[in-house]
Amino acid sequence: MSKAPSAGEGWRANIVIYAALLANLGIAVAKFIAAAFTGSSSMLTEGVHSLVDTGNQGLLLYGQHRARRAPDALHPFGYGRELYFWAFVVAILIFGLGATVSIYEGLQHIAEPEEMHSPLVNYIVLGIALVLEGTSWGIALREFGKAKGALRWWAAVRDSKDPAGFIVLFEDSAALAGLVVAGTGIWASHYWNDSRIDGWASIVIGAILAGVAMLLAREAKGLLIGERADPALVAAIRATLEAEPLITAVNHVRTVHSAPDAVFVAISADFVDTLPMGEAETLIERLEQRLKAQSPQLRSIYIRPEKAENAIDAVPLG
Prior knowledge:
Blueprint: H1 7-13, H2 15-38, H3 41-67, H4 82-111, H5 120-148, H6 153-159, H7 163-191, H8 196-225, H9 231-242, E1 247-259, E2 262-271, H10 277-294, E3 298-305, E4 315-316
Parallel strand pairs: 2-3
Antiparallel strand pairs: 1-2, 1-4
Pfam families: Cation_efflux, ZT_dimer
Transmembrane segments: 15-37, 83-104, 124-145, 166-188, 200-217
Organism: Sphingomonas hengshuiensis
């Protein structure tokens, strides 16, 4: 079992989440104060957006804490997927609280326009928010860029098994887009002296949040259901098995992530017919040790001897 990270290691590993949490908490307070002074609907919805994002980062940290629990009799493969559950909850909250409240406030502001006061306070808060959100977004972009390697950005999101990184990246991207929309709505409302424009800006912000929420929900759903490991890892496992002289065919290599850094693999292989049972057991143990040494994320390995002709997806060797 992997060693639990120290406090310093945990902080460094979660720098993206902590940066986003601190930024969103400060921004939410500032936006609510500005909304109270100016009566801006888009600023109020932006405050709700930042407050929801703050809670989301807290849920991701909680999910990571729960996911690190050791396996037990009830969950023999550990609690790693609990992080995926909380990632799905985050997506629901972005849609249910962020998007819905934003669209509702926008419709209310269009139906019953409120007189807006000087936009100076809003512009100051938006400027501060842009700096803080931009800093958080830059950290998230840098860390996700390191993790994705040579993959394209969208492919990296689809293949990622750690939702914390791309959730914060998408949240911060939506937040920056929302700030631009809010600033545009406030300026247009004063320029044309029509506060209903500010309400439409709130609806646009809600639509952005709804789109991000649906995207994140889809990715979290895939992780909850269970996704296979990186094809390169599967290929490496198969290559190790195929290099063993006492294996005549690799029938299948099936993997599933039980946590971002933990993979369960089930292998069906055809051993040579003359191999005694005792030697087959020794061979299986040796292969498991070799595979875990090559790929530490392989936490659970199951190797089943099976005749190639009995396996549907057998791959003969030689």
